[in-house]
Structures are given as C-alpha cells and as structure tokens.
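Hi there,

I know you've been waiting on this one. I reran it after we fixed the sequence typo, so this is the corrected version. Both the input and the resulting structure follow.
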Amino acid sequence: MKDAQQNYSHITTELLEKTIHKAKNSVRKRVNHNFHELSDTVQRMLNAIEPDSYCRPHRHIEPPKTETFILLKGDLSVIIFDEQGIISEVTSLNDRTGNKGIDIKPGVWHTLVSNISGTVIFETKTGPYLPVTDKEFAPWAPAEGAPQAFQYLKKLHQQIRELQNT
C-alpha cells in the first residue's frame, strides 16, 4: 500500500495551510510547492502568494510556454500588459467574480497580484524548468528586490482598485 502513495499527491487543506505559512514567513512573500521534478515536461505546483509579494511582469516566449492558474483559495488579480507595459486587462480570480482560473498563451506579458493574505493557486506550465529560459522579464518593470519594486507593486494594487471601481 505504501508504494501506491508515491504515485500520487493529495492537495489538502493542511497542505494549503502549510504552504501559506511558508509564504508568509519567506522573504519574497510567496512560495511554490512543486509536484513535479525540474526535468518533467509539465510543471505542476501550488503557488502561495501574499499581498506584499512582487512578481515581476514576464512572459514565456522562448521556448513558448502556456501557463494556467487555478484559484484554490483567496483573491488574485492576473494582470495582462501590452508591449509598452500598459495594463490591457485585469482578471480577478475569486468567489465574487466567479472566475476560478485563467490560461495564458505564450508571449503574453503578465503578473500576479495577491489581494488578500492566504491566496493559493494551482499552476501548470510546460517544462522542463530551466532558469535561463523559463521566462523573459519585462524591461519596463523593476527587478525583484530593486528599490522601485515596492512602489511598482503599490501602483499595481492601486490600478486594480481603480479598475474594479469603474
């Protein structure tokens, strides 16, 4: 019976809470719980993201990768940008909107913004994971950890609120 358990993983409330706890206590205020090996052709993971986490806008173009996010808990905004870094769409994943997920095609500039503490998504994208080619970061957005990153994230939160009120 023990060998059978190694062939699958449960996604439980306990696992979500452990992943949220790790995110809250991490420097980046987000953490992945991988179900895949880095060499797998499909990456599958939980991604716990806190509101103070800055995920630099990026795209997956070379090699082209589709990315899917499914909300498991919380409230997340997925922001799509044009080539100049102007927001072209915000999709809110939460119970209020009824939006539970989004599938993003290769080459689309995007980022994720957590709107409440304890937000967790299930994420998939094409593998294998190679840090050098995983994503292309937006040249018009500050690097993670840069002094301007916090202000940029604050601006994104403000733009989300303004778009929700229109």
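Quick highlight: The CA atoms of residues 65 and 106 lie 5 Å apart.

Best,
R. S.
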